[in-house]
Amino acid sequence: MDWSRKIRELRFLENLKQDALAQQLGVSQASVSQWERSVAQPPAHIKAKLRRRLLVSPGERLNAAVRTSVVESPNLCGLLTMRDGEVVVELLSHDSYRLFPLLTPADLGKPLRGKLGRDIDRLLDRLVGEGAFNGRVQYAKLALTAHRNGLSAAGIATVTPVCSQAEACVLRCEVRLLAPGEPVPKLEQITHFSWDEADADA
What we know:
Radius of gyration: 21 Å
Number of domains: 2
């Protein structure tokens, strides 16, 4: 096994720094660094601990990787999910609150409808209606303008549905905010998966 690669992968999936993983394993940060650089191999008892942590289902790994990519994004980035028939902001990147003060930590886990204006509600309805949470949408790029508490912000959202077999899809939504005064383009591109006849019958 390529322990160097596996340890880096584990740290990425669990969003851990070397010193945090070292503390969890009961070793020094220098040891983890040496393993990652292939200068040394972990001892047998550490390999056993690492194997147990790496034996996570693909769905759990995908979920962890997507969540990490959202939280660590330097942009306005969020994870949207459906809960009780409502689109909910489940997670936001660390920089989202600074970049986009229209959402606050109090908005996490609550329905998005009615919070950011009619334009956002209409785009959410379109994504839901076209099956973004049901695995029918491959990708979407949407221009949007949000309004709340006398503030407004415009941007271009890239929406990527991520689906696992066990659950409905979640939407990873990353937004490039437009500068004040920059015109908002007319953009509502939603790309669906196209299944050929043979796949549909299988």
